[in-house]
Design brief:
Layout lengths: L3 H27 L70 H4 E8 L6 E7 L2 E5 L4 E2 L2 E6 L3 E6 L2 E6 L2
Antiparallel strand pairs: 1-2, 2-3, 4-5, 5-6, 6-7
């Protein structure tokens, strides 16, 4: 390539091709919507009914026949214990008492109207948050007084203060 005019011509063509590519990229990014779809609102919405989901009602049977011999498979005793249902006794089993619901309650704060006369406590019980007024009851726990730093509750005649977390 000893001819300089041919090198200049090829360089000019490369610049032109790259210029067209860059121009088309910017044009496609900058284009405002002649090719874009516009959603027209007609005011009428078609509602599609959603099928009701029912819980599963089947059980898995584990007594499949052996595919090679055709005999029913015997289920192995995975616990390693023979039938001891009638032979075991628990000596002195105490009845299980329900946990104290006051210990499971948390006071998250309160919401008041503009004048501060009526307060609603935001309580958390077993992970569920709920709003409770004074004299509302949940699992036998009655809200007595809603304060800024805690709530006075009564459960089985015992008054307890649940403080803000």
């Amino acid at each position: 390539m000893k001819s300089k005019p041919l090198v200049y011509l090829l360089g000019f063509l490369v610049l032109c091709i790259w210029g067209v590519i860059v121009y088309r990229v910017f044009l496609s990014v900058r284009e405002k919507g002649s090719d874009r779809l516009q959603l027209a609102s007609t005011g009428k919405i078609n509602k599609v009914p959603v099928p009701k989901l029912y819980p599963d009602t089947f059980k898995l049977l584990l007594n499949y026949p052996d595919p090679f011999t055709g005999a029913l498979a015997k289920m192995p005793d995975t616990a390693g214990i023979k039938n001891l249902v009638g032979k075991t006794t628990v000596p002195g089993a105490a009845p299980v008492q329900a946990p104290d619901p006051v210990l499971q309650m948390k006071y998250l704060g309160f919401v008041a109207d503009g004048r501060g006369n009526r307060r609603v406590a935001i309580m958390s019980y077993q992970g569920a948050e709920m709003m409770m007024h004074e004299s509302d009851t949940l699992k036998g726990v009655k809200i007595m007084v809603i304060k800024k730093d805690g709530v006075l509750v009564r459960y089985h005649g015992k008054t307890t203060l649940i403080k803000t977390e």
